[in-house]
Specification:
Layout lengths: L2 H15 L6 E8 L5 E7 L5 E2 L3 E6 L8 E4 L3 E2 L4 E6 L4 H4 L4 E3 L9 E6 L2 E6 L19 E5 L19 E4 L35 H20 L3
The protein binds calcium ion (3 copies).
InterPro entries: Lamin_tail_dom (IPR001322), Lamin_tail_dom_sf (IPR036415)
Pfam family, one: LTD
Protein name: LTD domain-containing protein
C-alpha cells in the first residue's frame, strides 16, 4: 500500500471507529462574586440541538442526591452557544443569557451535571464528594471563570476524581467577556493573518513594457534570417 493509500485508509478507519461524543459540552463555567454564576454550553456537533431533553443538575456540598434540576429550553445551532445564568447576576451576564433561574446555583463545592435524556453528557466536580471549598488547585471551581480548551473531551463520569485543569483554563473572578462565544483555548479567537504585504519596493511594470522588447528581439532575428545573401 502506498503512503497515500495508508493515510486514506487510516482516515476512513478513524471516521468509522470515532466514538459518538455528546453534541453539547460545558464550554464555560463562571463562579464569580455574589450571584455571578453562569454555565455556557457549546454545540460541537454539525446539526442544531433541541434542548427539550437536556437538563442541568446541581449536587450540593457532597450530596448524592440531586439538589436542583433545570430543564433547558431552546435550540443551539452548530458551533453556537447557550448561556444559562442566575437571574440576579451581573448585567453583562444577563445581556448574553439565554435562560436564567432565581434558584441558588453553585459556589465551588457543588457538582454540576449536563444531561441528555437522563444520561450524563458532561460534568464538573465529583458527585457525593465534598472537596472543601473547591475542586482543583490553581485552576479551581471557586472564584474563577473556567473556559474549556479546544478539542478536550466531555466528562461523562461524575463519580470519579475531578480536576478542572484537565480541560479548563482559568480566568480572573468575574470575567464575563467570553460568555456566548464558544471558541476554545480560553475563548481566544484566532488572529486574522490579513493579506500578505504585496509591496516589493519597485513601481509596477506594465506587461506591455516587458513584452515589447521580446517582440522587438524576435523581429530582429526574423529580419536577420531573411537577409538575402
Ligand atoms: Ca455549595
Ligand atoms: Ca469526572
Ligand atoms: Ca465562552
Amino acid at each position: 500500500m502506498t503512503i497515500k493509500q495508508s493515510v486514506l485508509a487510516a482516515a476512513i478507519a478513524s471516521t468509522l471507529t470515532a466514538p459518538a461524543f455528546a453534541e453539547l459540552v460545558i464550554s464555560e463555567y463562571v463562579e464569580g462574586s455574589s450571584n455571578n454564576k453562569a454555565i455556557e454550553l457549546l454545540n460541537t456537533g454539525t446539526s442544531a440541538v433541541d434542548l427539550t431533553a437536556w437538563e442541568l443538575q446541581v449536587f450540593y456540598n457532597g450530596s448524592n442526591a440531586t439538589g436542583l434540576t433545570i430543564n433547558l429550553d431552546g435550540t443551539v445551532a452548530p458551533d453556537g452557544t447557550f448561556v444559562f445564568a442566575h437571574s440576579q447576576s451581573d448585567p453583562a451576564i444577563l445581556a448574553v443569557a439565554d435562560q436564567t433561574t432565581g434558584a441558588g446555583l453553585f459556589n465551588g463545592d457543588d457538582a454540576v451535571l449536563l444531561l441528555n435524556g437522563g444520561v450524563v453528557a458532561d460534568s464538573i466536580g465529583q458527585v457525593g464528594v465534598d472537596p472543601g471549598s473547591y475542586w482543583g488547585d490553581t485552576v479551581r471551581t471557586q472564584n474563577q471563570t473556567l473556559r474549556r480548551r479546544d478539542g478536550t473531551n466531555a466528562d461523562n463520569n461524575p463519580d470519579d476524581a475531578y480536576d478542572p485543569a484537565v480541560v479548563f483554563d482559568s480566568f480572573a473572578v468575574d470575567s464575563f467577556d467570553d460568555l456566548g462565544n464558544g471558541a476554545g483555548d480560553g475563548g481566544e479567537e484566532p488572529t486574522d493573518p490579513g493579506l500578505p504585504d504585496m509591496a516589493c519596493g519597485n513601481p509596477a511594470s506594465l506587461i506591455s513594457d516587458i513584452q515589447a522588447p521580446v517582440m522587438s528581439a524576435r523581429l530582429l532575428v526574423k529580419i536577420w534570417l531573411w537577409k538575402p545573401s
